[in-house]
Amino acid sequence: MPRPRTVYRGKRKYSWIITLAAMLVVIAIALAVWLFYYLQRFIVYDKDGLRLDLSAQREEILHPGAAEPTAPPAVQHVDVEIVVDQRDYSDIRTGAGRNLRPIHGVFVPAKDVTENTLKYYSENMGDFDALVLELKGADGFLRWHSGVAQADSFALNGTLELAELLAPLKEQGVYLIAQISALADSAMAQRNAPIALKNAVTGQPFSAADGTSYLDPYNDSTRAYLLALLTELQGMGFDEVMLSGVSCPDSDAVRFSMQMTKTPDSVTAVSSFALWLREQADPLGLRLSALIGSDALHSDGGAAGQNPVLFFKAFDRVAVATDFDGFAADVAALETALGTRSSTRIVAVTEDYTPELESYIIRGAGAASPAHHLSELRIPPPKTQGAAEAADIVDSPNSIERKEGISVPSLQSPHARISLAAWVCLLRSNRLLNCVFSCAITVYGWFPIAMGRAGGRR
Prior knowledge:
- It contains 14 helices and 14 strands.
- It is of the alpha/beta class.
- Residues about 80-85, about 370-435 and about 440-458 have low confidence and may be disordered.
C-alpha cells in the first residue's frame, strides 16, 4: 500500500505588508507637512475671509506691485572735509546768577583753616562781609571731618568740626563761602585709579607737569563724590560753594573711562561737567560759583578746557585770580563773556589790595586789615601782631615807622642792600676772605644808618 504523501506548509509571513504600510504613512505625513508650509504662500486674506488661491502667480503673491529691478546708480566721489566746531553755548538758558549780592571777601587758604583762625575772624572781620575758606585743594585732602564715605575709604578726611565753629560767624551775618577743588584732585586720582583721568599712552592716572592728577568728569563715581561733598557743605551752613579746578588737561594726552565713538576735547568735557553741576545745584537751592583761569579768558578755552561763556551759564558767579597789571583786561573779558557788567556775578580775586570792583576776594596776610585801596599797597603785619597794632604801620621810604617812634632800617637803603649782598656771598662760600670782606661791608652799610637814626632822635 502506497504511503500517503505528506506536504509541509510553513506559516505565511505578512511582515512586509506592515513595513510597506508604515512607509506609506511616513511618506504621507511628510507630504502633508510640506504641503502645509508650501501652500501658505497661496493663502489669500480678503473681505470674505481666508481662502486658497492657486491661480495667483507666486512672484505676485510674494512681492505684489514690485517694480522691475534696475541697475544701481553710479556712485559719485565727492571730497568732503569734516570739521567739528566747538558748540555754541550762547543759546543755553539756566537759572544761574539769581538772588545774589555783592561780596567783599577775605580768603583763608587750606593750611590756615584752623579753629583759632575761625575764632579770630568771628571777632575781626573788619570791613569784610564774606569769608572764603579753602576746604579742599588740588591735593585732594579735606580740611573738615566729612561724613562722605569715600573720604574715609581713601584716607582723605580732615579733623576739623566746622559746623560748631561756623555758628558765631553765621550769627554775625557773615556770608560763608566754601572753596573746594573739583576735578583737580591728586590724592583721590592716585588712590582710586578707576575714576581718574588716564594717561593715553600708559593707562595710568594722568599727572600734569606740576604733578596734579585729575578726576574723570564723565565718571559716575566722580560726580557722586563731588555731589555728596556739595550737599554736606550746604548742610553745614555755607551760603555758597566756589569750585576751583574745574578743568581738564588737553584730551590728546588723556583717556576717559567712558567708551565714546569720538574722544571729546577738554572744552567739551569741562562744559558737560559744568552743566551737570548746574542741574544738581538748582534742586538743592545751592549757590555754586567757579574760578576761571586768566589764560582761558584770553584764548579759546586755554589748555584747561574752560569756556567763559559756558561758565556764566553753569555757575552763579565766575571769579578770576588777577593782579594789578592784568585786572582791567581780565574784568573786561568776563564782561564780554557775560554780555554785560555785573556787580554780583563777576568777582576779582586779588593779592593784598582792594580792586575797583563791586565784588572781590582778597588773598594774603594783608587781608586781615581791609581798610586799604587799590593804590595803597601795604606791607602785611607779622602774624604775631593783632589787627589794631597792624593798623599803626605805614610805609616810609627808608623804614617801617610806628606811631610810638621806634624805627627799623629798611632794605630800600643802598647801604643795606650792599650789606645784604655781601652776606649772601658769605652764605655761598666758606672761605675766610669772603667772611672778612662781608663783615667789613656790613659795618660800612649799617653804621651810617645807625648814626643817622641816633642823630635824628637827638
